[in-house]
Amino acid sequence: MSTVHITGYHEANKSLSLPDLKQSLYDEGAVLMDRVLVTLHGEEHRVRRLLEMRIFKKDFFNYYSEQVLPPVINQAVAYYQRKGSADLMEFGPRAMIALTADFAGIDRPLGTDAEADTLIGILKALGLAATLGQFTGDREPIKETVRATLRQFDEQFFTASVARRRALIAGLKDGTHTEEQLPRDILTVLLRNEDRVDLPRDMILRETAFYFLAGAHTSVHSLTHAMHEMFTWAEHHPEDRARLKTDPLFVQRCVHESMRLHPSSPVVQRRALCPVHLPSGDDAAVDDTVVIDLFKANRQVAVFGEDAAEFNPYRVLPAIQPPYGLTFGVGIHTCLGRELAAGVVPKADTDPLKHQYGTVTSLALALIAANARPDPNRPARREPNIAREAWASYPIVLGA
Ligand code: HEM
Predict the structure, then answer these.
(1) pLDDT tens-digit map of 190-223
(2) Domains of the chain and CATH, by start
(3) Furthest CA-CA distance within the chain
(4) Which of 83, 97, 375, 378 has its C-alpha lying 20 to 30 A from 107's C-alpha?
(5) Residue 337 in contact with ligand 1 by CB distance below 6 A
């Protein structure tokens, strides 16, 4: 069995839609990832994806950006404003666990900082499962940590969240509740359909935990990179400092450009189910691994220009070219949370007051409004032991 690497943008784009390549990045992380949406294939994947996409009904994004986002962002910013400083690698998880818990369907009945700390701990431990494939040491202790964390997640959050939703769903059936009273989250969608699709309880537990994880980790990574790029840009382009404070569409453009340069999954990985002739011209035999390098594809000069490896929020691209490149994947497993995280790509006539900015830009705008800037006394640090470029710590100060 060998490994084929794909680095070209168009080749990567086409390969992501090939039905004979099956997800394999999370094979080692089955303790959490077994049969969750991103690891399913074929008909089973199609049915589950269609089911979960029901959450995005017509007005979902308005509801999310008007009702869910503002209180969560205000609470997270206020928490750190009281302190006058923050670490983006702590701010991000504190804001994101609330958002992805709501989206996944995990209730936070207390709403306290201590409860948020517990969920942040759970998020960190579950995150170990997603990167087990890249871990070279003894994996068993890590798997045990993930198992124990899933049990904690179940006992402290999942069981009660299920019970509340079951009661509401029963109320819908006997007419004591209306559709509008049901939460708009993945857990509710799954519980309402568990008889129609093969969804045992442990499967629903893992799927809910996966959503909680998938949305948060990726967004924290994207937010920290984007803030760093904007801080650096403002330092070298003082003429744009005011623009970052007054032009939210420009901030979203900065976020998309940063997402292109720093995809939170730098590679995706597939296994060939049969001999496949790849768009790159390579051939993959049965069980060969195909690594699709989003990081390199997103920096292709032929697609993004001579300065493709640099941050340039003024980059001009054809209208059909997503500014964030392949960061959210394409094809069969395209990210379900893309619009939530990145918002809508603006057009020339977009009204900034009615625009859908997405979670990452909304968080960035709140930080900019709070006058966030790098802490001059505590330099940011990169994560030394991770293959992808990641921040270990990014201290900032807030306020005047
Ligand atoms: C900046 C933020 C995000 C990035 C960069 C990102 C990136 C990705 C990528 C690259 C994939 C495809 C993986 C593959 O092809 O193997 C993916 C899939 C997925 N993402 Fe995201 N994601 C983000 C945020 C979110 C959020 C906020 C949610 C949910 C609330 C989410 C839910 C999912 C799900 C459910 C899938 C699996 C889709 C499927 O297999 O059909 N993501 N994401």
Answers:
(1) 999 887 777 899 999 999 999 999 999 999 999 9
(2) 26-264+337-397 (1.10.630.10)
(3) 63
(4) 83
(5) yes
